[in-house]
Design a protein that fits this description.
The protein is mainly β. It contains 1 helix and 5 strands. A 5-stranded antiparallel β-sheet has the order 4-3-2-1-5, with helices on one face.
Length: about 60
């Protein structure tokens, strides 16, 4: 999957705050994401995140 920093992605599972949209902050073996609903940041293995992405909402040009 071709993700870039500042892309907005929609995940399959809803965050407890009710949002499904996350901003990509860091890319590598792990991805750092920020919830656009509440601002919570998390790091997760790239494979796990790529499996849970429903779609890429917007790509920063």
């Amino acid at each position: 999957m071709d993700l870039k920093v500042h892309d907005i992605v929609e995940l399959k599972k809803e965050h407890p705050c009710g949002s499904r949209q996350w901003e990509v902050l860091r890319i590598g073996m792990d991805l750092k994401l920020r919830c656009l609903g509440c601002g919570h940041e998390m790091m997760a293995p790239r494979r796990k995140v790529e499996k849970s992405i429903k779609r890429i909402v917007s790509e920063e040009e």
